[in-house]
Amino acid sequence: MKPPASRLPDQDMQNAPTALVRAAKRAREIARQTGTEFVVMRDGNLVREIPQAKSKQNDQAEDIK
Question: Residue 65's pLDDT is what?
């Protein structure tokens, strides 16, 4: 997922969308490892999800991308 481009003049704020995407990915990974549900907003609704464990083959495929 490519983060949206920021048009803000401050360099730190330009990097914020990328940092948020990276943090969300890490949060999902930790939730998957611990079997903890996480909450996301989809179409204006809060949705609780428990990430499914991935197979080792899928993990390797994502590392290649």
Answer: 44
